[in-house]
C-alpha cells in the first residue's frame, strides 16, 4: 500500500505550534492522549476517529470538513452520515457564516447599483419628456439625434439591471449546516 502524504499531521502540527501549544497541551484540551497526537502529526495514524478530529478542530479553530478530507474520509462520510451536522466544527459554521455574510453584502451592492442605474434612467426620461413637452423653455425643439443619443444612454444604463445575479457569488450550500428538514423546502 502506498504511503499517503502527511498533510493532516502537518496542518495539525503547524496550527498547534502557531498557537503556542505543546502536543501534551493539545492532547489534554482534546481529551485524548499525547501518543495519539504524536501519531497524527507524524502521519502514523492515517484515518483517525471523527470525534478526535472534531476535538482537534474545535481547539485549533480548524474546519472539521477540511480535516476529514485530509484524513481520507469520503464525501459521503462527510456529508451523509447519521447526522452530518456532527461532522462540522465551529470553524465550519464560522466559514459558512462568513460566506453568507459576503453574499449578503454582494447582493446589497448589486441592489444599490441597480437602483442608482434606475434613478439615472428616470432622470434621463424626465428630462426627455420635459424637453419634448416644453420646448419653449429650451428655446428650441429637441432634435431627433438628441433623442436617439438619450435613448442609447438609457439602454446602456438599463443593460446591467437586466442581467442575472452572478451565481459564482452564491454561498456554498451545505445541507449539514442547514439541517435535514430544510433540504425539502
Give an overview of the whole structure.
The chain is rod-shaped. Residues 180-185 have low confidence and may be disordered. The protein is built from nine helices and no strands. 16% of the residues are buried. It has helices at 7-18, 23-29, 34-42, 50-60, 64-71, 75-79, 90-133, 144-162, 175-178. With 185 residues, it is an all-alpha fold. It folds into two domains: 7-87, Orthogonal Bundle (434 Repressor (Amino-terminal Domain)); 99-164.
Strand and helix layout:
Elements (H helix, E strand, L loop, with lengths): L6 H12 L4 H7 L4 H9 L7 H11 L3 H8 L3 H5 L10 H44 L10 H19 L12 H4 L7
Helix pairs in contact: 1-3, 2-3, 7-8
Task: Record keyword descriptors for this entry.
mainly alpha, 9 helices, 0% strand, disordered C terminus
CATH fold assignment of the largest domain: 434 Repressor (Amino-terminal Domain)
Percent of residues in helices: 55-70%
What is the CATH top level name of the largest domain? Mainly Alpha
Distance between the termini: 45 Å
Mind telling me which CATH architecture of the largest domain this is? Orthogonal Bundle
Determine Rg (CA atoms, Å).
Answer: 29 Å
What coarse outline follows from CA principal-axis ratios? rod-shaped
According to CATH, the homologous superfamily of the largest domain is lambda repressor-like DNA-binding domains
Average pLDDT taken over every residue: 84
- Work out the count of structural domains: 2
Q: Summarize the main sheet.
A: none
SSE succession:
HHHHHHHHH
Number of strands: 0
* Beta strand %: under 5%
Low-confidence stretches: 180-185
Query: Helical element count?
Result: 9
Structural class: mainly alpha
Amino acid at each position: 500500500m502506498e504511503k499517503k502524504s502527511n498533510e493532516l499531521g502537518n496542518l495539525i502540527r503547524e496550527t498547534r505550534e502557531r498557537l503556542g501549544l505543546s502536543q501534551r497541551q493539545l492532547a489534554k484540551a482534546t481529551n485524548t492522549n499525547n501518543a495519539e497526537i504524536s501519531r497524527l502529526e507524524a502521519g502514523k495514524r492515517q484515518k483517525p476517529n471523527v470525534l478526535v478530529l472534531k476535538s482537534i478542530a474545535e481547539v485549533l479553530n480548524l474546519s472539521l470538513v477540511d480535516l476529514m478530507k485530509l484524513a481520507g474520509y469520503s464525501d459521503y462520510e462527510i456529508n451523509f452520515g447519521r447526522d452530518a451536522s456532527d461532522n462540522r466544527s465551529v470553524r465550519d459554521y464560522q466559514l459558512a457564516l462568513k460566506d453568507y455574510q459576503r453574499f449578503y453584502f454582494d447582493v446589497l451592492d448589486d441592489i444599490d447599483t441597480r437602483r442608482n442605474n434606475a434613478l439615472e434612467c428616470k432622470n434621463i426620461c424626465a428630462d426627455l419628456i420635459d424637453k419634448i413637452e416644453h420646448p419653449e423653455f429650451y428655446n428650441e425643439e429637441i432634435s431627433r439625434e438628441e433623442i436617439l443619443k438619450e435613448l442609447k444612454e438609457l439602454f446602456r444604463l438599463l443593460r446591467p439591471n437586466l442581467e442575472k445575479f452572478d451565481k459564482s457569488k452564491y454561498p456554498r450550500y451545505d445541507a449539514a449546516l442547514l439541517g435535514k428538514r430544510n433540504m425539502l423546502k
